Amino acid sequence: MKKIFKLFALCVLVLATVSCNDFLDINENPNAATSTTPQLVLPGALNTTASLMVTYNNYGSGVGGYVANAGGFGFSGAYITYNYSTTDNTGLWSGMYDNLNDYQYVINNTKSDPVLANFYAIAKIMKSHGFQMLVDQYGNVPYTNALAGGQNITPEYDAAQDIYQDLIVQLDSAVYIIDNAGSATNPGTTDIMFGGNMARWKQFANTLKLRMLIRISGVTSLSSFVSEKFATLGASNFLTDDAIINPGYSSSNQNPYWNTYHSSTAGTAATGGRQYIPSTFILTFYNGSKIADPDRGSTVFRSFPNTVNNRLGNQIGNVPTAPANTIAWYIGRGNGIDARDTVGLFKGRTMGMPIMLAAESYFLQAEAIERGFLTGTAATAYRQGVISSFRYLYKGVNNTVAAGYDPVADADAYLAENEGNQLVDYASSTNKIETIITQKYIALNFIHGHEAWSEFRRTGYPTITSNSTFVSTVSQATSPDRLPRRLLYPSTEYQLNSANVPQTPTNFVFNTPIFWDAN
């Protein structure tokens, strides 16, 4: 754990737009006291969460089969071998704990103030969101006393399944707080995800709860807890539109995805985008090899169906290079600062950052209904998941569907074109869970790679075989499928919290799955 407690304050104008070029990083110093407010810290924390999605997506997209190395860029180390060390992917840990400290600050400074009840609830929801992401990659982590600042700089580790259960309880608490907030202050424009729409925050909390319950639904020891908590969901409202954070991205303070993968504010092509190209595996779900999906394929990939692609780890021979001055996921015209707003994954530098897709919400509902945890019609939720995937891709920078695009018509055409295909046709599928997870995998493509990776570990879908796989050609994994199961704790934990950090055996990364990974 970091010993320095960081707060991120985002400058927010309580007007129609929200913008600020500089984000404050205030270190707690007992010799130079500083002060801030929950109203200032919350939007900064949300903005940091948006930026962290790039870090998590990049990691998950590599190990989970979305991206491969492009020619002309030397790939070495754990990204392609999976032989993770304590210095690999450390940003997932340090960045998230910094972010969680911000949410804890809001919680500590609002929990006794009824006027700020909505801020309190939002921070609790986002704290659950952050810890879920940590547990899914590391397992046991510091939780109960992790965010005590200087009062406890060597926190003990909590059991992963205990953390999951408490996160679900905290989400229930947040929904209760919103329902009973009365005349509490509405966050308004300081809420850079839902603009103060607390009904949508309840939907988000319910959908996060659904995600976590589905993820632990195969853990025998938690069956009673899962059943109990599913019963409290009942006919709860879930997300019906994408959860998007946008603090007011501009040409000088652009969207983190765009900045990392497309180009800088000066228009220089980002190395982070050009060193990766789509995997050969992911293209099979669009180009007819497994599934015919020309509409989404041409919206996601540049020059589809002739998109440059590779298999992770393959650096022998003529490995394709990324398109000059741009990336293989940008379909618009122009390069650098001349790139034009478009649809697809990279819509423009002012696009918002997706935190959870409506497509995921519907696919979670479909699985829950199919498994008997929720009532309803699974086929209906499934179709809405497919439609929502098309809808997100067809949105422009303003978060509305662009002119000339029809997500419902194209989704229905896709379902009809693939009638009888086990991976698409829900009605005829003999393995409906495989169908649902495969479609979720497609919907999360290079958006939330970490979530797709967790779902693959949980379910084993989409199916990989010796002839159709995303496993790196230079994998050093000793597991049967030659894939890792988790990350190692960062070296800072062994240096600063050695009495508590778990001592890991040889091949821990390959042979010790997260508690919900029964696959």
Structural summary, described in words:
This protein has a two-stranded antiparallel ribbon with strand order 1-2. A two-stranded antiparallel sheet has the order 3-7. The protein is built from 18 helices and 8 strands. It has 519 residues and is mainly α. The model is unreliable at 1-33 (pLDDT under 50). The chain has helices at 38-63, 78-81, 90-108, 117-138, 160-179, 198-215, 223-233, 256-262, 271-274, 280-283, 294-300, 358-370, 378-394, 407-417, 432-443, 449-459, 491-496, 508-511; strands at residues 6-10, 23-27, 67-69, 141-142, 157-158, 243-245, 276-278, 353-356. It has a domain at 6-249 and 352-357 and 444-511: Serine Threonine Protein Phosphatase 5, Tetratricopeptide repeat. The chain is globular. Helix 6 crosses helix 12 (358-370).
List keywords for this structure.
519 residues; mainly alpha; Serine Threonine Protein Phosphatase 5, Tetratricopeptide repeat; two-stranded antiparallel sheet; two-stranded antiparallel ribbon; 8 strands; 5% strand; disordered N terminus
List the helices and strands and how they pair.
Elements: E1 6-10, E2 23-27, H1 38-63, E3 67-69, H2 78-81, H3 90-108, H4 117-138, E4 141-142, E5 157-158, H5 160-179, H6 198-215, H7 223-233, E6 243-245, H8 256-262, H9 271-274, E7 276-278, H10 280-283, H11 294-300, E8 353-356, H12 358-370, H13 378-394, H14 407-417, H15 432-443, H16 449-459, H17 491-496, H18 508-511
Antiparallel strand pairs: 1-2, 3-7, 4-5, 6-8
Helix pairs in contact: 1-3, 1-4, 1-16, 3-4, 4-5, 4-6, 5-6, 6-7, 6-12, 12-13, 12-15, 13-14, 13-15, 15-16
